[in-house]
DNA sequence: GTGAAAGCGCTAACAA
DNA sequence: TTGTTAGCGCTTTCAC
């Protein structure tokens, strides 16, 4: 194995000089830098990660804990992971993969053994055993999502309130005057003070602002519930011309149900969904949608961590703006 | 930070004794072991990963390179990754995540810097820039899939030939006497001497063995091609009662096409697919299928690496047996 | 602008 | 069965 002293000898300098050329932590004459770089190339030198971590107290590794539980949409997780790895590499860091299964112990382990300098935790629950740990751990961390008590933690997420508002805005601008929200299952609203509520709030506020008649309907995540919901909505609001859906499994069945009930989409009824792009794009009728911006979330999580590692303070909450992709399911009211 | 000397002092032993208690590399009296363990607990000691890697020349980290390119079915990748992490943890190892994008350089980097002890590479292409590197690198590796020249490399994959055979066997046992294979796009057969051929071979051999009439039809991966294929098959073989599909995007469209042509599935025509379980299970009509056993592949890849790390030789090729899941698309011929 | 040398925390050879 | 100690390869302080 080629080591720093080999490079130093080859270049006719001290090992510390090689180290400084690599780190840029002190000024080196152009001449020496050149020679050292050439020696590094010539010998194919790569610093030993462990030795580096030991001496510098930095592993240059981020730990990323991903959920594997059902209900999480897998492509979104992968997209997020890929974005994290790519962003980390751009900052000379590597990524250690942990599964949610490992829980708080896993985080404690990689932090305690100095395997990782910082932690990214996806799929944060409102009451999460990892939260208290992350507080006491003296390693920077970023959470994807917001727990019940986010104070002092750095959290990143889609701005769900803005997403709810944006869905209404899109429909209002198409001329719709009556829009209902088909939401998540009832227990999601009861149990969590989380994103489902925020979508509903943004939806309701924006509807009020646009003078659009609106209502929110929690809905179980089954095709049968979707069918029943479609019938109920038509019975309740004959004047309904647009629907926002925030409930992934229900998107396709709901559209199918409306069609079976004799409504044409988008001619008679426009549909906007909050769901992963894969679901919206691959539906029989491509659905206008607002997606979780997994790429941006991953990249942002990493840049936040990098700031924290440098000691630069960052804001606790980062809410990414929603983006709406117009597909075939929404059209002007007529 | 608690270090090994703190534990040693607390337990009244030498640091090396603590090390040996942890590694089990020499016999320790039950009494000492007990005291040391208690001190470890009491102080919350965790060995410094970098120091360990430096002194022992082992990082206890596996690098896992995953594909993100389109065409790869994402849930399968995630499932594989999860299995690798879980298996690695069972062997006291962690997993470093690399993206295919990093290519050979990424592997060289993590191997050269001693970040990882061993490498797992998924989605191996027939002509892959990483293959020559893996040969010359003095780190054990396992490939998922088979390159053109697999000699000397440790490869793991589904036994595609057996999968082809199994699909026929299932249908033959249901009484079908005429079975066609709708395969991958033509260029896959031309370009690759890989899994597509092996499926076709296993299919053809098994058909011959069961005395079943059969034919192989490459098929483009589009709904239109699926529709055309359905028409063509019916025209060619009016007596056809079963079809095997090895072409993910075509599974659902093909079934739909047969139905539109007046055939009932499975009453008039049985269908078996080689595709990820998600696709088979979530089709409008759940499809009897043989899946890529991502869990087993991941676990096996890790155990193979562990053997290699211990210096135990392993066989070059590991072919996992196919498993067929019976769903609603296959039934006895009548 | 550069060098010398003291550790970082652990493992494993050697010694008892 | 246990202790002593010499590194592992790097970073960083101190010195010039």
TrEMBL record, chains A, B:
Q: Keywords assigned by UniProt?
A: DNA-binding, Transcription, Transcription regulation
Alphabetized SUPFAM superfamilies for the sequence: lambda repressor-like DNA-binding domains, Periplasmic binding protein-like I
Q: Which InterPro entries match?
A: HTH_LacI, LacI/GalR-like_sensor, Lambda_DNA-bd_dom_sf, Peripla_BP_I
CDD domains in the record, alphabetically? HTH_LacI
Tell me what organism the protein belongs to.
Actinocorallia herbida
The answer, when asked if Secreted is one of the entry's keywords, is: no
| Residue ranges constituting the HTH lacI-type domain according to the UniProt record | 2-56
Q: Which PANTHER family match?
A: LACI-RELATED TRANSCRIPTIONAL REPRESSOR, LACTOSE OPERON REPRESSOR
Does the record bear Zinc in its keywords?
no
Entry GO MF terms = DNA-binding transcription factor activity; transcription cis-regulatory region binding
> Pfam families from the xrefs?
LacI (PF00356), Peripla_BP_3 (PF13377)
Q: What is this protein called?
A: LacI family transcriptional regulator
Record-annotated membrane-spanning stretches: none
The source's domain of life comes to Bacteria
Residues in the signal sequence: none
